[in-house]
Design a protein that fits this description.
Blueprint: E1 3-6, E2 20-21, E3 35-39, H1 46-57, E4 63-66, E5 91-92, E6 95-96, E7 111-112, E8 120-121, H2 131-142, E9 149-150, H3 161-170, E10 174-179, H4 185-197, E11 207-213, H5 220-232, E12 236-241, H6 254-259, H7 263-274
Parallel strand pairs: 1-2, 1-3, 3-4, 5-8, 8-9, 9-10, 10-11, 11-12
Antiparallel strand pairs: 6-7
Length: 275
């Protein structure tokens, strides 16, 4: 079956084959298709996604809408992962969901998936999986030609020495942790110590950390403190601006975020800090 995948917007992970679109059906050159899937990642993309559904319905083939936006916190996501289908080849999910119940996140319960080949791990919380599954994922990563990347995020509270041994064995290009609320700092600092003990260096910028900013009652001073603490723990911080369920964010925070999001600027801050 030939399935057109339609996305409200394109990003680094969006597939690039001829059946991927971010607009209404092209008037010329549209390949033959049997079905259309409109994929929605974020709540604020829904208005455009619904508009795209109407545009593609005129073709007279079935049009379905789904994606991460439709995940429910208490319902397991039973979809299999199909390489190259909704993310480009190389990006892979070996599990879906997370056992935590963070106030800003709506992923469902944890479920381990059949492991497919890829090098960029998008799992919501890989370290919450069983030891057998985690070790199998690392065996898969050893077969890849690209250096592994953990852009989905690794949870500092769950990081153990045997995880660090596995990470050191594959020499990842990058691994992201998270510092979302104040109680995340102590586990992050401990994770930094473990990784440095296993040979990772802050100056190599492999150890990275998403830092949530701009949520209710947050201030520039509090956010900068978290970002600086992230560097102190050995991680390169990247500021992630909070959006509410409608996609709204505090626009006065954008200049602050840019200062802590652009890699070159953050790398300079990191270098200065570690002097």
């Amino acid at each position: 079956m030939k399935i057109a995948r339609v996305f409200p917007k394109r990003n680094k992970a969006t597939p690039v084959d001829e059946l991927v679109f971010t607009t209404e059906p092209p008037r010329l050159g549209l390949p033959e298709i049997d079905e259309v899937h409109v994929s929605v990642a974020f709540t604020w993309d829904m208005p455009r996604a619904e508009w795209l559904v109407h545009q593609w319905e005129v073709l007279g083939v079935p049009v379905k809408i789904g994606g991460p936006y439709f995940n429910k916190p208490d319902v397991p996501d039973d979809r299999p992962f199909i390489p190259g289908m909704y993310v480009k080849h190389g990006y892979v999910m070996t599990s879906r969901g997370c056992p935590n119940h963070c106030w800003f996140c709506k992923v469902g319960p944890l479920r381990e998936l059949e492991i497919k080949d890829g090098w960029n791990i998008l799992d919501d919380n890989l370290l919450s999986c069983s030891e057998e599954h985690i070790r199998d994922v690392f065996e898969m990563l050893k077969r890849q030609q690209n250096k592994p990347a953990f852009t989905g995020g690794l949870e500092a509270k769950r990081l153990k020495d045997w995880h660090c041994n596995l990470l050191a064995s594959i020499k990842p290009q990058t691994m992201y942790f998270a510092y979302d609320t104040a109680d995340d700092y102590e586990p992050l600092a401990e994770a930094g110590k473990k990784l440095i003990k296993h040979g990772f260096k802050p100056s190599n910028h492999q150890m990275c950390c998403y830092v949530l900013i701009g949520y209710e009652r947050d201030t520039y001073e509090k956010a900068e403190k978290r970002l600086t603490e992230t560097m102190k723990a050995g991680f390169m911080p990247f500021a992630m601006l909070y959006r509410d369920p409608t996609g709204e964010f505090r626009k006065d925070w954008k200049p602050f975020q840019r200062e802590w999001l652009r890699q070159r600027i953050v790398a300079t801050k990191m270098k200065e800090y570690w002097k």
